[in-house]
Amino acid sequence: SGSSYYAAHGATMDNIYGHRQVKATACPGDGLFALKSTVISRTEDRLSGAQGLTAVWQRNGALGGRPSWFSSTASSERGLAYARVGSQDRLYVVSRSGGTSVRILNASTGSDVGTLSTSGISGGTYPLNDIESSSDGVLFAANLTTNTIDSNFRVYRWSSESATPVRVIDFRTWSTPMRLGDHITVTGSTADNSLTIYAPTSGGDYVVVFTTSDNGASFSHQFVNVSNGGTLGQNPAVAPFASDFYIASRGVGAQHYTSTGALIGAAPSSVIPTTVGSAKSFATSGSTTRKYLALFDFSSASNHGGYLRVADVTSGATGAQSVGETPWLGGASNPNGAGDVAVKSNGDGTFDLFVLSTNNGLAAYRMGSSSSKNVLEAESLTAPVFALSGVYPNPTSGVATVAYDLPDEVSVSLEVYDLLGRRVAEQIQAYEPAGARSRTLDLAHLPSGVYLVRLLAGERVATSRLTLVTR
Q1: How far apart are CA 401 and CA 435, in angstroms?
Q2: With bands split at pLDDT 50, 70 and 90, how would you rate the model's confidence at 172?
Q3: How crowded is residue 101: how many other Cβ atoms within 10 Å of its Cβ?
Q4: What are the beta bridge partners of residue 11?
């Protein structure tokens, strides 16, 4: 936007201009030169927020100055979470600068609010390293252990900002050492036991999946083997969707897996390079759902402060497309390639994306415009939507009702899987008319545990989690 004076040419030029305007050359060619005004217009649109990302606030080495408690050399800030706690929009940052702490920030402005209690937290290579939130505003933070044989992987829970943390996971292995805690991912709610915590192994080939049946007071675990995608890189992070997930890691990039760990594909390095070290998944709602990954890219230059990158993965990993990227966050070296991202849906078609760049600082950016929400709402009013609207009661002692909506007449079937990906129950296909429908599942023959209920309607698939507690 605008123009600049170029002393070498003694002229004031548009900030986007054709090479031929300052040198005797045909560059950039008649076809592209004729589109110069279009390039300028579309660039201005992206900068103004019509497309891409626009800054909401910044506290980093490039703009605004990093927080006083944020180290520029010690790599002491690595974990970031957004949560709606009570009536407040919050960011939480794990810091080891001056001792272990969890900093509370106002998510709307980036300003400091206070700290969480860290009473009783101990153990691990670092007592705390990452923090996440359930959908109902319960906070969970993990330590970092480089060897689960020698040092337990631990997760702590805060039920409110004034609460004392409670240890809810104390996990170790006996024969295979794992590095856990570079990143954890939390999905679901404590209220209905849909809560899941994902912990990928840095440099390994497993994701440890923790689930609960007592509202997050304790957890059981399962191992998901992702070895057919090769060994994970450093700082791996799981970005799950309803029935699949991505893992982004330094040295590998982003890979797409089924819920059971089978490799689906890898994102092109031109869209998601091997310098990413964190990822969060998010999606628009309505009949034109689109899936996205927000990623921290630390870049490979030692003096590059890293930045936020967004990719559209609606068509899967191999069809990933770049949505936008932010300016770099500072010039401090980040030798571990550490950083984190968090996502807030504003409910109007826009998303606030938060990024932490280790040794450099923090920033918040907005993606999308409220008009996209209006379009989705208008489409939803004119066309029925396919949805799995509920599985209840949850938990169940054996029998559950699966409620769903069909936009048209279609062949429908139900499948039930355990967390190892084994199909343990199935209902045969049958054609059903459009509208609100339901089916009953009898699972009394199965052992207690957490299961995935999968609804197939033609080529459409929806998945929900169900906890079974047999007597």
Answers
A1: 16
A2: very high
A3: 19
A4: 6
Nearest-angstrom CA–CA distance, 461 and 454: 7
Q: What separation in angstroms does the CA of 463 have from each of 150, 243, 259, 275?
A: 37, 6, 10, 32
Decide if 402 contacts 413 (C-beta within 8 A): no
Which distant-in-sequence residues (6+ apart) come within 8 Å of 394 by Cβ?
A: 192, 193, 194, 400, 465, 466, 467
Q: How far apart are CA 217 and CA 212, in angstroms?
A: 7
pTM of the predicted model as reported, rounded to 2 decimal places: 0.71
Please say if the pLDDT value at position 328 is more than 70: yes
Give one DSSP letter per residue of 212-235, joined into a string. -SSTTSS-EEEEEE-GGG----EE
Eight-class DSSP state of 64: B
Mean pLDDT along residues 403-415: 83
Residue 2 and residue 48 in contact, taking contact as beta carbons nearer than 8 Å: no
- Report d(CA 209, CA 219) in Å as an integer: 10
Contact 97, 359 (CB under 8 A): no
Q: Please give the helix or strand (H or E) that residue 31 lies within, else none.
A: helix 30-33
Angstrom distance (rounded) from CA 417 to CA 399: 16
Confidence of residue 79 (pLDDT cuts 50, 70, 90): very high
Which residues, other chains included, contact 16 with Cβ-Cβ below 8 Å and sequence gap of 6+?
A: 36, 39, 40, 43
pLDDT tens, 119-134? 999 999 999 999 999 9
Residue 239: closest CA among 324, 140, 317: 317
Q: What six digits make up the tokens of 176?
A: 């295979």
Taking 70 as the threshold, does the pLDDT of residue 224 lie above it?
yes
| Confidence bin at 217 (pLDDT 50/70/90) | very high
Dist. CA 394–CA 372, nearest whole Å:
34
Tokens of 471: 């007597």
| Residue 41: band (very low, low, confident or very high) from pLDDT cuts 50, 70, 90 | low
Please report the DSSP string for 267-332 in residue order. Answer: --TTTS-TTEEEEEEEE--STT--EEEEEEE--S-TT---EEEEEE-TT-STT-EEEEEPPP--S-
Residue 391 — very low, low, confident or very high, per pLDDT cuts 50/70/90?
Answer: confident
Q: How many angstroms separate the CA atoms of 195 and 192, rounded? A: 8
d(CA 451, CA 454): 10
232/226 Cα distance (integer angstroms): 8
Strand 153-158: give its sheet, edge to edge: 126-133, 139-144, 153-158, 166-171
